[in-house]
Amino acid sequence: MILEMVRANGAVSLRELARVVQTSEVTVRRDVRALEAEGLLDRRHGGAVLPGGFTRESGFPQKSHLATAEKTAIADLAANFVEEGEAIVVGAGTTTQELARRLARVPGLTVVTNSLLVAQALAHANRVEVVMTGGTLRGSNYALVGSGAEQSLQGLRVSRAFLSGSGLTAERGLSTSNMLSASVDRALVQAASEVVVLADHTKLGTDTMFQTVPTDVITRLVTDDPPAHDDRAQTELQALADQGVQIAVAGASGNPGGDEVPARRQQRRDVALPGPRRGAPSGPGLRNAGVLGEAGAERERARVADLRRR
């Protein structure tokens, strides 16, 4: 069962494997080690991937069933960073689709997207204007790609871009497995003053073929809290913070009602450390590194370390 899931999805978290096979993560981890010893898969940052280094892209049906609780929590928190009357871009992906569902209630919002799923989520939002790019439909993720999509973004300027991807590392930033998708994502980034990446913990430390957003361009990462045993994801989070990425962590164990959960009830951890960034980050509860100074940044690191030990 484990091997079949990895072959079908390309990458699966230990948490998801344990849920599907109805056993503990400890048992799943032992089975994954055995399969890795036989060369049938690779262990990677709290999950398992196909052997060969780079993970391949899963289709929408597979992605939509992976890390659903984590995506819900991430979308709940990310929606707090969108203000009334803003103009934003939202890229393709199952996590950004979850975000779009929560943006339907933001009055005066303009959303530019290349995702049919994002547009569908906002189709009946009377107070939200949706602008779609041109391009060629890519059926595996219901996104518009190609030169038509990229050309339609030329000359566009918005406050924020919300993007997802297949992997995120401190060394290379956000990446994806498809060249056409990566090219459009880069065009979306060029249109925005700030870049917000939405990525659950299973993508932390995962590297895929095409870079979309270098680390020094990412303003903020919204993610979920990695399991205590996932040291590599924790290390990757700290490495991203050390490079100046603002980290907002949402708990995945809250009310499954998603957009009905009040923001104040969410688990949240924000990290603001010095580093080159596009634009000046803004949003509820964030601490600006320029205000904190070096001593304040050191206190912030100590606060995050203390939270992780709890």
Task: Explain how this protein is built.
- With about 300 residues, this protein is α/β, with parallel strands linked by helices.
- It contains eleven helices and 16 strands.
- The strands form four sheets. An eight-stranded mixed sheet has the order 6-5-4-9-12-14-15-16, sandwiched between helices. It has a three-stranded antiparallel sheet with strand order 1-3-2.
- Helix 2 (about 15-20) packs across helix 3 and helix 5 (about 70-80) packs across helix 6.
- The longest helix has 21 residues, at about 290-310.
- The protein is globular, with a radius of gyration of 19 Å.
- The protein starts with a helix and ends with a helix.
Quick structural summary:
By secondary structure, the chain is of the alpha/beta class. The protein has 11 helices and 16 strands. It has an 8-stranded mixed beta sheet, with helices on both faces.
